[in-house]
């Protein structure tokens, strides 16, 4: 069996080599010729899996080791009888932690506490749902907009316009869709952006085109009260340098790039392929996941909850580093910028999730322990 895979899939050989010959290629340039005699394609989000790409191949299965699958023509795969799997939720924790770290940095910079703000989550699925629960556990007032959800106790669901009117922080966590009853392409256009409350923090860690980037640029030119965090950009890997300059935090589509999230994505697609082939899954995620570089923090009784959370979060992930690297794009010509965007993603430094850090907070106040636990850090009892 021949398996063609994106070269940026961590542990792709460790997972798939037991099932066939694995050929790795740069994801953006995988073409129909590469797939002519392939049985399986294992992709990430940068490979446009269109009808044209797959229709003349002998592919039996396509997997994408990502949560989003707007790059895949699932209908064409179904019609052609090609099996498909994505990796739902694989990197949801990673995105949640990205958002929490961004908010921690902005709150410190601007002198407020997130607990005093109302946060609106657009798209309460794997990412949005986890973010909703984490923020609620921190005592933040959270509301959500998701037209596909049924009412649920403890969750205030509102329309998008109401969410925009009421929220100080808005996180976008929908898929990118252009069809159906509630398409998300340009969900936030000029009128929604102009309607944002004074001082709103807008975070897009879903897909770039959920926000009309041209409208955002024009609104940011006239509204310096807004704070914007963009992980995703319309027309990636082309990033508009004018927009990058005006956002408060800009990163190269790495919100979901914790090593844990990426490995989970690889393993989920490996397991889906094994099920498809009717074979036992012999590779286990536990065996593949390395130890984190930082394993333990120990807080004394003098630390307060704000200090403890900032220290623990920044020890695990300091988003300012990604923002600083991204700003190097500002000095580049368009082609170099495109290449650098992909280079940063391919060579992304190892980032681990909060749960990999054990924190001994037994000597600290109850409030410290509760806050760290709400964020998902590992607080062993002994
Ligand atoms: N920046 C990054 O690295 C990452 C980005 N993503 C993106 O985030 C998206 C969301 O991820 P998940 O939570 O895992 O997906 P999910 O499918 O679990 O959740 C998406 C939610 O959005 C809701 N939704 C759909 N259309 C909507 C609309 N018009 N208005 C409001 N809500 C709407 C759905 O009902 C669903 O509850 C993915 O599709 C992907 O595009 C996901 C992981 C990493
Ligand atoms: O899982 C998703 O959806 C994402 O957005 C991924 O983090 C994208 O990563 P790449 O597939 O572009 O490496």
Automatic annotation (TrEMBL):
Alphabetical list of PROSITE patterns matching this protein: D_2_HYDROXYACID_DH_3 (PS00671)
Protein origin, superkingdom: Bacteria
Any one GO BP annotation for this protein: pyridoxine biosynthetic process
GO-annotated cellular components: cytosol
Pfam families, alphabetized: 2-Hacid_dh, 2-Hacid_dh_C
D-isomer specific 2-hydroxyacid dehydrogenase NAD-binding domain span: 109-255
EC number: 1.1.1.290
Keywords: Cytoplasm, NAD, Oxidoreductase, Pyridoxine biosynthesis
Positions of NAD(+) binding: 126-127, 146, 174, 231, 256
Chain ranges of the D-isomer specific 2-hydroxyacid dehydrogenase catalytic domain: 24-371
Family: Belongs to the D-isomer specific 2-hydroxyacid dehydrogenase family. PdxB subfamily.
Function field: Catalyzes the oxidation of erythronate-4-phosphate to 3-hydroxy-2-oxo-4-phosphonooxybutanoate.
NCBIfam families: PRK00257.1 (NF001309)
Name this polypeptide is given: Erythronate-4-phosphate dehydrogenase
Taxonomic source organism: Endozoicomonas montiporae
């Amino acid at each position: 069996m021949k398996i063609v895979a994106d070269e940026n899939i961590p542990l792709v050989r460790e997972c798939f080599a037991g099932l066939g010959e694995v050929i790795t290629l740069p994801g953006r340039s995988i073409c129909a010729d590469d797939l002519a005699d392939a049985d399986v394609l294992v992709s990430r989000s940068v490979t446009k899996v269109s009808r044209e790409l797959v229709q003349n191949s002998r592919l039996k299965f396509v997997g994408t080791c990502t949560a989003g699958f707007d790059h895949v023509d699932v209908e064409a795969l179904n019609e052609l009888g090609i099996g498909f799997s994505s990796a739902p939720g694989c990197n949801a924790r990673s995105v949640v932690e990205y958002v929490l770290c961004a908010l921690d940095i902005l709150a410190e910079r601007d002198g407020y506490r997130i607990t005093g703000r109302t946060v609106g989550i657009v798209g309460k699925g794997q990412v949005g749902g986890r973010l909703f629960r984490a923020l609620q556990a921190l005592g933040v007032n959270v509301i959500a907009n998701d037209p596909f959800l049924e009412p649920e106790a403890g969750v205030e669901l509102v329309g998008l316009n109401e969410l925009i009117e009421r929220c100080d922080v808005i996180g976008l966590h929908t898929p990118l869709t252009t069809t159906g009853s509630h398409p998300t392409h340009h969900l936030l256009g000029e009128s929604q952006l102009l309607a944002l409350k004074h001082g709103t923090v807008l975070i897009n860690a879903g897909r770039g085109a959920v926000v009309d980037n041209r409208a955002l640029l024009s609104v940011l030119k006239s509204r310096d009260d807004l704070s914007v965090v963009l992980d995703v950009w319309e027309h990636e890997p082309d990033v508009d340098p004018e927009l990058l300059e005006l956002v408060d935090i800009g990163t190269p589509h790495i919100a979901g790039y914790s090593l844990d999230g990426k490995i989970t994505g690889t393993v989920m697609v490996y397991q889906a392929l094994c099920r498809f082939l009717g074979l036992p899954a012999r590779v286990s995620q536990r065996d593949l996941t390395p130890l984190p570089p930082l394993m333990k923090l120990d807080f004394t009784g003098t630390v307060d909850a704000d200090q403890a959370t900032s220290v623990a979060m920044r020890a695990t992930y300091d988003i300012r580093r990604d923002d600083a690297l991204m700003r190097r794009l500002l000095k580049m010509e368009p082609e170099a910028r495109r290449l650098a965007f992909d280079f940063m993603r391919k060579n992304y430094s190892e980032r681990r999730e909060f749960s990999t850090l054990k924190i001994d907070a037994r000597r600290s106040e109850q409030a410290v322990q509760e806050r760290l636990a709400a964020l998902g850090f590992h607080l062993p009892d002994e």
